[in-house]
Amino acid sequence: MTNPYQIEGNIIPFIPEGDFYFSKGVEAFQKRKFDLSLKWFKKAIADKPNNPLYQCQASIVYTEMGSYHLANQMLTKVLSTHGEDYVDCYYLIANNYAHLGLLQDAVKYAELYIEKAPDGEFTEAASSLLDVLDLSEIEEEDDDDEWMLEEEDDLIIYQETAFYHLEREEWEEAIAILEEMITLFPEFSQAKHEYHYALFFAGEREEAITMEEKYLQDHPDSLFSCMNLACFFAHEANQERLQYYTELLDNIYPIHEQQKLRIAVTFAQIGLFEKALYRFKLLHKSKLKGHPSYYRWFSTCQYYLGLKETAQHLWEEGCKQHNILAVQTPPWK
């Protein structure tokens, strides 16, 4: 049997390996071509799945693209397998949590990094992050909100899995994951709201509305409840209740990017495209590229407000970013 890799004439077959893919990924990253960079890093990881450096660098690309959950998922995997050899992961995780608005978690990981690497490369940056988070205002008021590191790892995986199914409108799959999340992490309120949302669109409308209204009654300041109920009553054509929640949302301007996006999407879903477009324009696109809903609903607003060419361009950009959009037709069609 002949060697398939033997030299034939003057041609030497070139067989790419992980280091080659990694170097191409770094090159693309330095040029801020994040989509291309991520493709190269994924190839490198496929070639050497246990190389922590490849995974760490891929996580940084995810951070630049706004996919903070995915970034942290990769980093926690590195910590679980390589531990103290990659302490920089603690700082990177803290930074991602800060972007997500999970401030207690950001503080915890920043402090862990400083403890484990007092003279590390990111020690000054971690200290600055702690100053920005203003520890005096986020003291541990409720011990129930504290998560053990192992629990956080599991939570991130559950969040990403639920996010995957919700973005693809795979309601039954999302419900199954969210039911597990609610059982395992009863204090993680976002899972309950996502569960109500999936339940509504799976056809259990009355039950979803009842549960969300009950939650709002117990937690009058719940922004997620207001957004869900506005969406629910729009689909139920209950104009009186819809107007009530619309007026509430119209006066709320969250600080965190994820919540800003959710309000913009809510306005788009209920057909208030001018309000939605204004909210979308306030967003930082670089932080939301990991969300298909950003492209789906922002382009929808543009289309129905007469910006058809702009809408088509944004939709096509989203299709390049997300396979789930590439197999769909634009919402307006």
Automatic annotation (TrEMBL):
TPR repeats lie at residues 18-51. SUPFAM superfamilies: TPR-like. Keywords: TPR repeat. InterPro entries: TPR-like_helical_dom_sf, TPR_rpt. This is Tetratricopeptide repeat protein. It comes from Gracilibacillus thailandensis. The lineage of its organism: Bacteria, Bacillati, Bacillota, Bacilli, Bacillales.
